[in-house]
Amino acid sequence: MSNFPFIDNDALKNNLDTTFRHIVELVAIADEYDKTLSSSFRKTIIIYTASVIEALLLWRLKKKIRSTKVELSDEWKYYNIKILHRIDASEEIIGGNRKKEKKDINKLDFVRVIDLCVQHGIITEQFSEKVHKVRELRNRLHIGGLAEIEKEYTKKDLNFVFGVAKKVKNTVSKEFRFRP
Amino acid sequence: MKRARTKEGAYIRKRGDTKVSTIEKKYGVDLGVRSDMKLGNYLKKKGYNSLADMLKK
Question: What is the pLDDT of residue A176?
Fold first, then answer.
């Protein structure tokens, strides 16, 4: 039986269940190692939990928008560009047309998914701040961009992320109780 | 409480009833609790209530 019975997409439901099972097992064993390795396990758990949160929000957004394309308020496609004046090799004054670009909903990044969920009333702006915090923790998987030695991930970090995940699950499933 | 059964008569396994012993064997660890403890209860004991709650429907 699924932990996400309200999800009507079998592939997604399966992927969520597999990921969730992995999270639960990692949590069970994370404290059994030395401090550094336990922290690494917790980081892995955070990354996977963030992916569950992102997937749930995207699923709910697709239910709301009911389209494969979504218009973003700040993304434009530029065309018929003419150079009016060249200031130097790296700066020009241009003129032309621009049109708001529609993006494939399946190719949205996490930050866009969160912002669109706020825009469409799926989550509040206040709660989105917590989801963004999860996203920022998740983004620490890009260790090439870290300026310092990685921080220690704690049980407090995990409980924060789990709290957000629980609320997201409850929110997105509200209208979609399991139908046999 | 009446537990649900499959057509063949076996009890339907509920989420969260994985036993600690399953994890211990799988990963070769000793979690320091009774092996027959349910995983959901173990998570609550460790202070992960939100995660344990997500194991329920």
Answer: 62
